[in-house]
Design brief:
417 residues; alpha+beta; Nuclear Transport Factor 2, Chain: A; 4 domains; 6-stranded antiparallel sheet; 7 helices; 32% strand
């Protein structure tokens, strides 16, 4: 082999020698290399398995009860008996579809059962060494938000553009719905501002937002709403003077649509092609749009009514009745004589009877006289008692101050000057 060839292989030989010196340890016994690490790993693995914490989740389905679920997750009969005996109020075992149960095991031994009824309520049942039931109620954190908007075509679209939750949009339309017909009365450049609170638990929204304060400017007229303690409800809404916004009847039976035909005793019928009095208002809307009762009352009739098609008539107090016609279908369980609440869904928009397209025909009748639903004066609920006015005015001032602070930093501030 030439000298040049030796020079080439020297680096490889040195590398091989270095590898042998690093890997080989003459002080290490072969039996240690084979046995020690394996035994140690086996011991740790066995210990971890015996103490392993396992959680199993169950979502309650319709028809299930706690006994059946406990049996499925191997809860002993003795443990079940003790839990039921301690549950004297019945709150624990009164489960509903959608409730969640979480079972925690250490190895094969059950340690804890969580029954999660809602984001703000759960029961924790410690099963070892003794049965202990703890009721946990979480207080939501109320996050206050402010939004404003300028209407170009519809309030609903303006609300969505302002990033207002749909539930809050609908609530505002309902609150002002006794005075403003959001189908017929809305004008371009109408504006609104809303202060509302939303409950959160552990950073998760647990319910829809609730309006605290709102102003709506319709055709340059200002309408205000301030939330205050209610009588029969959690709260009611009042104007600046403490007058209730609630009236015996809503102004319109649909949330969002448009008037396609007004009250007109001399209108020419579009199908019959002859003069026939139009004793109500037609609201054009998409098929199956929910129709709401404008006032509290009792169902007088449900069924087909000649040219009206599928029709519901509601009898109210004060010799007032309302009629809803051309329905696609009725709300379930709607029968003659059943009681109806204001705002309750009674049917869905259709084109049954003598109708050219899906719409709702709505009539408002006092005695034997039909009145224009868009113009009839609606009686209001009682105003606040004078003794409550100082408390109400203090709350109103707080809401207004907060709203003004938010508005000062809002892009639409210039429209409210």
């Amino acid at each position: 082999m030439s000298k040049r060839s030796w020079i080439k292989i020297i680096p490889y030989g040195l590398l091989a020698l270095f590898t042998v010196l690093v890997v080989y340890d003459p002080t290490l016994d072969a039996s240690q290399l084979e046995n020690t690490p394996v035994t140690q790993i086996a011991d740790i693995s066995t210990q971890e398995l015996s103490n392993n914490k396992i959680k199993e989740l169950h979502v309650v389905k319709s028809g299930e009860n706690l006994s059946v679920i406990f049996e499925k997750y191997s809860v002993s009969l003795n443990t079940t008996y003790q839990i039921f005996r301690k549950d004297k109020s019945g709150e624990v075992k009164n489960i509903q579809p959608g409730n969640r149960l979480e079972f925690t095991f250490i190895g094969s031994e059950l340690q804890l059962i969580r029954i999660i009824k809602s984001p703000v309520l759960e029961f924790q049942i410690l099963t070892s060494p003794n049965i202990e039931i703890t009721k946990i109620e979480k207080t939501p954190e109320q996050i206050i938000s402010f939004k404003s908007g300028i209407i170009q075509s519809s309030f609903y679209l303006a609300g969505l553009k302002a990033d207002i939750p749909e539930s809050v949009i609908m609530d505002l339309a309902y609150i002002f719905g006794w005075d403003i017909d959001f189908v017929f009365d809305i004008r371009a450049n109408d504006k609104f501002r809303i202060l509302y609170e939303t409950p959160f638990v552990d950073g998760v929204k647990v319910a829809n937002g609730s309006i605290l304060f709102a102003e709506f400017y319709n055709d340059n007229k200002k309408y205000s709403a301030i939330r205050f303690n209610g009588k029969n409800k959690l709260w009611d809404y009042f104007d600046d003077e403490g007058n209730s916004l609630e009236k015996a009847f809503l102004r319109a039976p649909l949330d969002f649509a448009y008037v396609s035909s007004h009250f007109n005793p001399n209108r020419r019928h579009p199908i019959l092609n002859k003069i026939r009095a139009h004793n109500g208002v037609d609201y054009a809307a998409k098929r199956n749009t929910p129709i709401r009762a404008t006032g509290e009352g009792v169902i007088e009739s449900v069924g087909w009514k000649s040219g009206y098609g599928r029709t519901v008539v509601i009898r109210h107090g004060g010799d007032i009745s309302t009629l809803y016609a051309h329905m696609e279908k009725y709300a379930s369980s709607l029968v003659k004589g059943s009681k109806i609440k204001q705002g309750q869904t009674i049917g869905y928009v259709g084109d049954s009877g003598l109708a050219t397209a899906p719409h709702l025909h709505y009539e408002f009748k006092i005695g034997n006289k039909r009145s224009d639903p868009l113009k009839v004066l609606l009686p209001s609920a009682l105003p606040l008692k004078k003794s409550l006015m100082p408390e109400f005015q203090k709350l109103q001032s707080e809401y207004l101050k907060k709203s003004n602070n938010f508005l000062s930093r809002d892009p639409n501030a210039k429209f409210f000057e």
